[in-house]
Amino acid sequence: MALIKSISGIRGTIGGKTGENLTPLDVVKFSAAFGSWLLEKNSGNKIVIGRDGRISGAMVQQLVVNTLTGLGIDVVDIGLSTTPTVEMAVVWEKAAGGIIITASHNPKEWNALKLLNEHGEFISGEDGALVLEKARKEDFNFVTVDKLGTYSVNDTYLQKHIDTVVNYPLVDVEGIRQKQYKVVVDVVNSTGALAIPPLLTALGIEEVIVLNEEITGKFAHNPEPLPENLTALSAAVRKHKADLGIAVDPDVDRLCFVCEDGSMFGEEYTLVAVADYVLSKKVGNTVSNMSSTKALKEVTLKHGGEYYPSAVGEVNVVDKMKLVNAVIGGEGNGGIIVPDLHYGRDALIGIGLFLSSLATHKNGIRSFRTRYPDYFISKNKIELQNGIDVKEIFEKIKTKYKNQPVNTEDGLKIEFDSDWVHLRTSNTEPIIRIYAESSFETTANNIALRLMHDIKEFM
């Protein structure tokens, strides 16, 4: 069981001991800290909240609402929704901030409070530190009965989000409609069920088969959209002779695609394909985190732009995108960020742009995939026990590989000729992630295994 405080919010397992898990008392404390911090900023007293379909979602939502109204904050609850929809709703409501109740790709035992500023973007690390300090000191001042905040519900924003995607200039609805695609979608028993089928219909797709569409929070499989978790989707694509499959995570900010033969398009190549399409329409720069494939850099240079890496974490990607004026960016986990829509990972705009690009290709998605190189990223993790000094481990590894180019901006990235390995602690789980990329799958796996052995040796 765990409680993790990071740039990705306050995340933890439900139940257990206060201060070690995301218990009701922890939810109240961190909600109060965030609300109090926003009030001190004097940016208003309205907060937008929304949640995914997790089992614990309703309980956490009620705790958040009552805590915020107790501070004198007016709460606009958009209900069961998606992370990118809440982000956009903060701006549409001209709110002071937002809270998304979701643990994203984590299993059902987890939930989290994702904290947004007035721009509908995740708060910075510096602001997050101020919120955590307020929580530590329990520096809250609740209002008297005559000054309690209000509570209202607005369930219109998901449709507004869909309409915005359909009307985005680079989304070619007519081109998609003419292809008459048959699509299978895995919405993993969460709010993708409310967002993705209506989006596909609005994009002119008449045949949509939905898997795991009941919103129970009892995920039919591990909810992270990785190949090993999508075997049922692959089988369904083949069974229904569909043109493609789509999978999203529980809060619908990540996505990946399955080819007509049931093979994976590759989550890393979601961003590559979308960026290739966007850059063909407007020249500009791109950003992805340094755990993402080098194929994005190659595509960007081909179109005359510049590629920039960032530290892992949506906040870091967004900061770098703003710094270099990127026209498209994101993360290799299937997170697409389109800045002139909003600065947040968004599976809905990702689907619209990907299908627009696919519609320009005369053959199927498997053939479409051959446009891009076959680099392999071996993705691994090692669980951390309490008391492990990760910095010391990384210093020892850095010394061992001192003759190789090393980047320490985010953990440890080591280059081996045209290959690389990236070691970093997760923002969302008590683990070390070990990602390695090569032109050959066995090489990528062997590099990752070598570094995993090094980590264990130095523990």
From TrEMBL:
Residues 8-140, 162-262, 269-365 form the Alpha-D-phosphohexomutase alpha/beta/alpha domain. One of its GO terms (molecular function) is phosphoglucosamine mutase activity. Residues 396-448 form the Alpha-D-phosphohexomutase C-terminal domain. Its cofactor is Mg(2+). GO terms for cellular component: cytosol. Its EC number is 5.4.2.10. Pfam families: PGM_PMM_I, PGM_PMM_II, PGM_PMM_III, PGM_PMM_IV. Keywords: Isomerase, Magnesium, Metal-binding, Phosphoprotein. It comes from the Bacteria. One of its GO terms (biological process) is UDP-N-acetylglucosamine biosynthetic process. InterPro entries: A-D-PHexomutase_a/b/a-I (IPR005844), A-D-PHexomutase_a/b/a-I/II/III (IPR016055), A-D-PHexomutase_a/b/a-II (IPR005845), A-D-PHexomutase_a/b/a-III (IPR005846), A-D-PHexomutase_C (IPR005843), A-D-PHexomutase_C_sf (IPR036900), A-D-PHexomutase_CS (IPR016066), Alpha-D-phosphohexomutase_SF (IPR005841). Belongs to the phosphohexose mutase family. This is Phosphoglucosamine mutase. The gene is glmM.
